[in-house]
Design brief:
This protein is mostly helical and 224 residues long. Helix content is 53%, strand content 8%. The protein has 9 helices and 6 strands; from the N terminus they run αβααββααβααββαα. Strands 1-3-2 form a 3-stranded antiparallel beta sheet. Strands 4-6-5 form a 3-stranded antiparallel beta sheet. The longest helix has 32 residues.
């Protein structure tokens, strides 16, 4: 299957995709998900970074955008009464189950080391050892159709690199380095978390503006 390139997704769009993958693998009896279930999954307080407080309308807008790229599919499920949503990321990007699990974990929990990823992916995909997981990370970073993740600078006091997904566009390595320096300089954990949240929000806003510009170009029939 041909691999497709995607425009950068917003923070909420990546969160929606991550939740759909997670629930498909951990609670298959309740998958595909209703809008209410998706909102609850996006705003979950555990195993999420950053913490969001998205409303129904915001999640629906994210779903509509993801449907445009065929990353999400609508279905009425077995009941035939309530609209439900399923992800299609594997087919659109031609990804294997291990890669989908790694992407989902990164979309849900933010940048992580390979060791942290092995733990966080345990319910999504069981990697036999750290070497096999790292082989998939290398595959994702060197993907011919475009890298899916990037290795970040080491944090202060850490011996391991963290990895971040690239579905929301390039990572501002300088900003990540500033966060690392802040941690090294004794800035509180709360302040670092706030800084990371602000960066994530800015990325989301830039993504929304980019989508608005693309739609405007399309409506005017102007090629870029």
């Amino acid at each position: 299957m041909t691999e497709h390139a995607l425009p950068p997704l917003s923070l909420l769009e990546t969160r929606v995709l991550g939740v759909l993958v997670e629930k498909q693998l951990t609670t298959p009896d309740y998958y595909p998900l209703t809008l209410n279930a998706l909102v609850a999954g996006c705003n979950q307080k555990t195993s999420r970074y950053p913490i969001l407080n998205a409303g129904d309308d915001e999640v629906q807008m994210a779903l509509d955008s993801l449907k445009h790229h065929t990353l999400v599919i609508e279905t009425f499920g077995a009941s035939g009464r309530v609209m439900r949503y399923a992800h299609n990321i594997g087919k659109v990007l031609n990804l294997s189950p291990p890669v989908i699990a790694l992407l989902a974990s990164l979309m849900l929990r933010g940048p992580q080391t390979s060791g942290e990823l092995r733990v966080s992916c345990d319910r999504l995909y069981r990697f036999p050892d750290i070497s096999s997981l790292e082989a998939y990370l290398d595959e994702m970073a060197g993907r011919a159709a475009g890298a899916l993740l990037v290795k970040l600078p080491k944090q202060a006091g850490s011996r391991e690199h963290r990895f971040a997904h690239l579905l929301a566009g390039p990572i501002e390595v300088e900003a990540e380095a500033a966060i690392t320096l802040a941690a090294d300089g004794g800035v509180s954990t709360g302040e670092i978390a706030a800084l990371k949240s602000n960066i994530a929000q800015l990325r989301d806003e830039v993504g929304v503006l980019r989508q608005m510009v693309e739609r405007l170009y399309a409506e005017l029939g102007v090629s870029r």
